[in-house]
Prior knowledge:
- This protein is α/β, with parallel strands linked by helices.
- 46% of the residues lie in helices and 17% in strands.
- The strands form 2 sheets. The protein has a 6-stranded mixed beta sheet, with helices on both faces. Strands 4-6-8-9 form a 4-stranded mixed beta sheet.
- The longest helix has 20 residues, at 76-95.
Amino acid sequence: MTLQNILTEVEDKVLIITINRPEKLNALNAKTIEELHETLLEAENHNEIRTIIITGSGNKSFVAGADIAEFANFSIEQGKQLAATGHFKIFNFIENYSKPVIAAVNGFALGGGLELAMACHIRIASENAKMGLPETSLGVIPGYGGTQRLAQLVGKGKAFEMIVTADMLNAQDAYKWVLVNYVVTQEELLAKCKEVASKVALRSPVAVKTAIKVINAGYNAHVNGFDVEIEEFGKMFGTKDFKEGVKAFLEKRKPSFNGN
Ligand code: COA
């Protein structure tokens, strides 16, 4: 697939994806969603990629939402399909991705932009970032998982307030509400994300992948996260990474994991 709306770069075991529609504040249209999905799908099988960083191009916007112009005339059925496709291709896909995905929130993260950041495992914001779910101001509701993930991250009360008022949080308030893990200057943003990614690169890929699966299990109403943890914990004892990790500890050296 020819990439038109995203830029990709691999550096030190990190795939950096930059959403690149700055003239539209990096709004997510169908083509961008498709390109993101294909790129992530491909990166899943690259053992040398250990972490993904997603950011927006320019210094004004991470992603200013779903592309409003694209869905302006949608029917009920098309609206439902828009949400379902987004969940499947990007938002649930990223949440359940086998490698940690870090959102480098470099400006506006509104609507689908905040939903994208919230689907990521870790969020780091620059000081100028502004985050919100303003969909009710357009006569719609968040449709890319925002009603669920915002409440999980900031609590139900603040999620109700943010969604029904359509207000934005600045970076410091987002930090206060634990919506982002760190706030740094715009100049430091990618470096901070890479610093986190460099730690992931030292850990067992199979343990990292399993940890993501088990943490997510606790947010699935149909399964018991503790049961999943017991099951997956047991399975780790059959992995080469576990044998290597323990052996390296006992031999007082750094482990060399190969991810199985
Ligand atoms: N979808 C489509 N286009 C968008 C967009 C979106 N979500 N957000 C911004 N754009 C476009 C604007 O239409 C404008 O395009 P144009 O120059 O061709 O007219 C361009 O990006 C720049 O945006 P503009 O509104 O002029 O910038 P601003 O600095 O005045 O305002 C925002 C910035 C983010 C406050 C404003 O763009 C905005 O409110 N965007 C929509 C946010 C939203 O509701 N997101 C949820 C969607 S469900």
